[in-house]
Amino acid sequence: MRQDDDVKTADFTDVRATNLAVVLRHLRANGPSSRAAIAASTGLNKATVSSLTSDLIGQRLLRETGLTGNRIGRPATELALDGSAYAAIGLQVAADRLTALAVDFAGEQLLLWHRAVRADRAGTAITALAQRAASRVRQQGRHVLGLTVAVPGLVADGGTVRLSPPLGWADLDLRGLLSGSLRQSGLTVAVANHAVLAAVAEQRHGGHPGGANLTYVTGAAGVEAGLVVDGRPLAGAHGFTGQIGRFTLGPAGAPTLQDLAGVEPLVRRALPDFDPESLGDLSPAVEQVAVQARAGDAATLQALRDTGCHLGQGLALLANLVNPELIVLGDHYAALAEWLIPAAETELARHTLAPEAGGARLIASRLGLHAAALGGAVTHLDRVDTGDLSRLAHA
Amino acid sequence: MRQDDDVKTADFTDVRATNLAVVLRHLRANGPSSRAAIAASTGLNKATVSSLTSDLIGQRLLRETGLTGNRIGRPATELALDGSAYAAIGLQVAADRLTALAVDFAGEQLLLWHRAVRADRAGTAITALAQRAASRVRQQGRHVLGLTVAVPGLVADGGTVRLSPPLGWADLDLRGLLSGSLRQSGLTVAVANHAVLAAVAEQRHGGHPGGANLTYVTGAAGVEAGLVVDGRPLAGAHGFTGQIGRFTLGPAGAPTLQDLAGVEPLVRRALPDFDPESLGDLSPAVEQVAVQARAGDAATLQALRDTGCHLGQGLALLANLVNPELIVLGDHYAALAEWLIPAAETELARHTLAPEAGGARLIASRLGLHAAALGGAVTHLDRVDTGDLSRLAHA
């Protein structure tokens, strides 16, 4: 197996795919450039660049943007990423609602929808929402490259939800299910863990340097981490990674990190008379906690400090094991970051063997509550950035 | 940077290197084969295989082993890995002693030496031992491809020991130091964490399937883990990974995994009247603990059960985060594995969210106390297996 793969990575289609990727990444990183500038900074010769760019223009991934101005010699035509022809959809599943998001290859958000739903009805609701989103995007004249569904818990590589306590799912072949019900609409379907997808979104749209070793921590449905390592999501043997909430040490029945640093325990402590029934969507409760914190409520501030301390211990564990460059506090944690981060940073540094927490910076996400949906869409668009244009032909 | 790399990985030298690697791996995996058999099972055409194999024979990495027997048509010459011309050296540093090991490309161990040493004298002792080992190997008519020094603690990518509590080292540019003192002997020097190198050795010489996601746990000098992920050692942002011993949760001063599951605390508990002074080398004490366990001493067996339980909690944490296929208990843990594993397996399964510990198998290393030295040598030989023959020219 291994050997055949190696042979493939060396054949000539891949040389071209690699070079297509080089051109696309150059333009994504540096903005509009002339063919000559692309050749100069990628090390590819001009004839190759001309052939690659005409391919990409033909595929509507690039467009010519007129002439360059201030330069010596005759002006050259500049090329820019287009990608308005291609889009992808991410669909994020929570215990009480679905979020659908579509983005095009150039990074423009095309739609963001929320739907209330019960987990036991999620299957049909996902299908319906995916179909509506796909036809809306197609009405806008875009090809849909694929759909990725983001769920909390353990998702096996094949797209089976092995175990999702927040959704009450076990051994559910969600990918198979949706591929069947969406066959008519011709959508390519993938399923992945929401924290992993959120980490991918932070890497591409979070606007932080140092994304090659990035960890995203979600508190939306239990505490989970999405690990990007050497630039790629960490899958492990079967895709069951990032379950930091289970972290415990000591006698049987000792509390887990989730018990000590979870968002729901924090809410219950800061809002004693909060209605447990309404804990499906934590957002209003989290906003109320923030309001009390801003008002200087002592009990709320203490609860936030304690949560931050324990979260910091969990992050130290992560930093000691995988040495991330960047730890991004996501969703509800981001909304409370100004109170959580000071305590968390102290514990992170105290419990990490490497000085300055091994160089890990702790920051709040700016991508809001639907980072996983964005990441789900991005995974399909990233395939194009690697020079894999095979899907475009079918699109 | 990224882009230039991609261009490189696609150029033609790399196509050839990749194909050289394919041939070498085929022979390592399948043993002696004819050129036709290599072509058939690698997908390379016969002309390419002939040209690649004559290169490799010229480099003394392959040799012809006479004719194949029972097959239709005229008999063909078989080729086998040779590699007796090339060797590499691993040097393992502990608080009280050095271990030097040399192995050739075909996997034969050429020497295994131990020297007593004090950490404050380690620098000169390492240089002297490396020089003696290199000249011994050269006397045997081998080229030495390189030397890797294995140390406990944090080693930065450049080979600087950032922090090694067991050795009492901080910010020591060990690689620079040794490169200077070994310049005459023309040795290429690398420095890496001992658990990471032991994991590499397990991957290549441990004889387990499923080495692509493997974790090696050492108890030789504190509790550290060497993580191999998707077939490669996990470096993280700066190389500071696998520090599982720091793992703690709860109020300030709560015990760490190292306090609860370390080998030294176990020894102190099982052998109350053991001389703490002699704790530099734990081997005799560990052997005494094993003797008492075999004799059925209740206190010793209880101490082993407790250590196993806490170790299992630490491994569950690892399994929840990086989902290894294989967890290898190394060095002193391996010597006590028959008593540690039952309790550790129970806790590992109990605290891992994924069923059956996410598929992680817990086993004892068969590579003994010098796995890290072996791994140090292997890292240099692995570069040849990837088709990188550049060093051979200089060798």
UniProtKB/TrEMBL annotation, chains A, B:
Pfam families: HTH_IclR, ROK
The HTH iclR-type domain, residue ranges: 22-64
Domain of life per record: Bacteria
Family according to the record: Belongs to the ROK (NagC/XylR) family.
Protein name, as recorded: ROK family protein
Species for this entry: Actinoplanes aureus
Lineage of the organism: Bacteria, Bacillati, Actinomycetota, Actinomycetes, Micromonosporales
